[in-house]
Amino acid sequence: MEKPKTPTWLIPTGVTLIVLSLLGIGAYQAFQNPKPPRILDTFGNQQIDTVDASGKPVTITNIHRVPNFSFLDQDGNIVNQETVEGKTYVADFFFTTCESICPVMSKEIMKLCKVLKADSSVVFISHTVDPETDSVPRLKSYAMAHQANPRQWHFVTGSKKELYEMARTGYFVTATEGDGGPDDFVHTQNFVLVDKYKQIRGYYDGTDSLEMGKLLKDIELLKAEYAWKDSQASN
């Protein structure tokens, strides 16, 4: 009995073998250097039009990073860039006597803290916009009322000028102008996601539970991005 012939379309040609080899190499490289599912945008960068050495017009990107800061938290400890070194953190602005958006924002952070309780790589920094009222003892009472772990959630105070400067030019949470004087006031529900490189990676409405779900997902995306960058550096 004659043996059935293999259909010609199943017989690999030289071109097919090359394509299959390239696909195999690509799959291996992807396995060796997996990329995160999505890279989050960065915010606050500036496009600057200038000229190069030859006089040719060029556009350069000035990468924004959150500037250095130093405030006191609810335990009287200094909170600065060293506090968040190598960590992802979420910044927001509130005041303890607020009866509108701030209680909702604080409750949302409480929920996030519970979800991320075992994750020491993520911290929260809530900046008061009313430092004249929100002393360290007052922040301590507010923190205790919200069951805040002081290693995870810092309520900070400092000079009004410095706090407002951070809100406007450090985190860009408001477009209003001001000098941090007696008549100046900042009130915003924006949460700011900052990566371990001090770059802003997202803004979220702190009064919206759906936005908080997105924030949690974006924190996980950042972890995947860190792992990918670390793997690239080691190769």
Biggest sheet overview: 5 strands, mixed
Helical content (DSSP H or I, runs of 4+): 25-40%
What's the CATH topology label?
Glutaredoxin
Characterize the overall form: globular
Mean pLDDT, as a whole number? 86
Secondary structure class reads: alpha/beta
- How many structural domains in the coordinates? 1
Question: What is the CATH class name?
Answer: Alpha Beta
Query: Can you write the helix and strand succession as a string?
Result: HEEEEEHEHEHEEH
Uncertain runs are 17-23, 25-31
Distance between the termini: 57 Å
Strand order of the largest sheet: 7-6-5-8-9
Explain what this protein looks like in three dimensions:
The chain contains five helices and nine strands; from the N terminus they run αβββββαβαβαββα. The protein has 235 residues and is an alpha/beta fold. It has a single domain (65-234), classed as 3-Layer(aba) Sandwich (Glutaredoxin), CATH 3.40.30. β1 (46-51) and β2 form a beta hairpin.
Keywords:
five-stranded mixed beta sheet; 235 residues; alpha/beta; two-stranded antiparallel sheet
